[in-house]
Inverse folding.
């Protein structure tokens, strides 16, 4: 069994977001000593302070772009979960430098501050969009993963284990398509679908917390953990939501947004060739060898396997009835349903 958070001090960057709040609750339930919520927005911190009402949670205003603010929040901390990010694909296309500042340089600040303050483990949250990236968000997250792996490679004697987790679309996360579709359905507006054939990996917030915990328990420096998520088409997703909210299935097609991919890749074939299978997860270890490639001939086995990518177009596909059942298990969707009377739409 790996490390435990019982009685320990944990920092969550981006701590007021969907992941941060769920992770904070989970840590508190498990007996954490202190949770530090680090974020930019004092209003969101205030709401969280009043909702959680737990004296073990401390609130730190700061920005991962500002090294000093991260360094201060990291002092005396045992573990860091790094969730602060710019994560919307279209907006990062318009402001790619902002994605670099937050997702790449900000992550480097978090890793550096954690290393200097002797933090035991840092888990950075990445995305399937970091694999074969074509948009600024995915490119910046791919670079974040590279920064995490370079830490493992360049500082082998560091006491700080830095690992990454990758997952797909978290259902009902803030600013994502499910709350948008629900808002449209409830307002009597026809949902706007970019491309009904587009596919996305779906995971629940609880599963994302579980993956981060798994990474935290099992990480070696430079590892990337990948969730074996199921996928769906956006056409099926909107149809399932219409069924859940008992309205006729209808949508308007608006076309791809800036920077979007039709399908996502959670792990490349090259990565899978050296991955370990943990059942619900893969662990892809970093290549920690040095740059002297000629020395490889002396190695026992040179592995040149290639596998297929783990892609949302070929992954296990959830159909409409399965999506309906899954969506009905999401607490936020149940809450939306509780305040919903479809007859009002007639
Ligand atoms: O009006 C809309 C808006 C979006 N979509 C589609 O819905 C899907 C999901 O969109 P969205 O919820 O905005 O998520 P993504 O752009 O896929 O990105 C999310 O999922 C990623 C994981 O793949 C995370 O890394 C990102 O932070 C998160 O924003 C995509 O196929 C969109 O094209 C529509 O059909 N209609």
């Amino acid at each position: 069994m790996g490390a435990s958070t019982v009685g320990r001090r944990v920092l969550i960057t981006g701590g007021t977001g969907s992941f941060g709040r769920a992770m904070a609750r989970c840590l508190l339930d498990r007996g954490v000593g202190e949770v530090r919520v680090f974020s930019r927005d004092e209003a969101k911190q205030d709401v969280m302070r009043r909702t959680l009402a737990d004296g073990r949670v401390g609130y730190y205003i700061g920005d991962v772009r500002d090294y000093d603010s991260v360094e201060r929040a990291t002092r005396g901390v045992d573990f860091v979960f790094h969730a602060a990010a710019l994560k919307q694909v279209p907006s990062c296309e318009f402001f790619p430098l902002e994605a670099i500042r937050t997702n790449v340089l900000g992550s480097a600040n978090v890793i550096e501050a954690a290393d200097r303050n002797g933090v035991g483990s840092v888990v950075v949250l990445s995305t399937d969009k970091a694999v074969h990236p074509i948009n600024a968000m995915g490119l910046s997250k791919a670079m974040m993963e590279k920064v995490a792996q370079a830490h493992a490679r360049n500082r082998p004697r560091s006491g700080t284990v830095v690992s990454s987790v990758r997952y797909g679309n978290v259902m009902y996360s803030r600013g994502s398509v499910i709350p948008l579709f629900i808002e449209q359905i409830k307002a009597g507006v026809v949902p706007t679908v970019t491309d009904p054939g587009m596919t996305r990996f779906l995971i629940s917030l609880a599963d994302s917390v579980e993956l981060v915990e798994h990474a935290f328990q099992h990480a070696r420096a430079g590892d990337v953990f990948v969730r074996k998520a199921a996928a769906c088409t956006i056409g099926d997703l909107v149809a399932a939501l219409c069924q859940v909210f008992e309205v006729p299935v209808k949508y308007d097609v608006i076309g791809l947004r800036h920077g979007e991919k039709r399908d996502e890749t959670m792990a490349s074939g090259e990565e899978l060739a050296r991955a370990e299978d943990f059942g619900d997860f893969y662990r892809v270890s970093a290549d920690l060898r040095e740059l002297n490639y000629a020395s490889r001939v002396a190695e026992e086995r040179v592995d040149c396997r290639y596998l297929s990518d783990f892609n949302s177009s070929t992954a296990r596909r959830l159909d409409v009835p399965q999506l309906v059942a899954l969506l009905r298990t999401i607490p936020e969707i149940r809450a939306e349903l509780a305040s919903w009377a479809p007859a009002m739409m007639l």
In short: The mean pLDDT is 94. The chain has twelve helices and 16 strands. Residues 57 and 70 are 17 Å apart (CA to CA). The two ends are 56 Å apart (CA to CA).
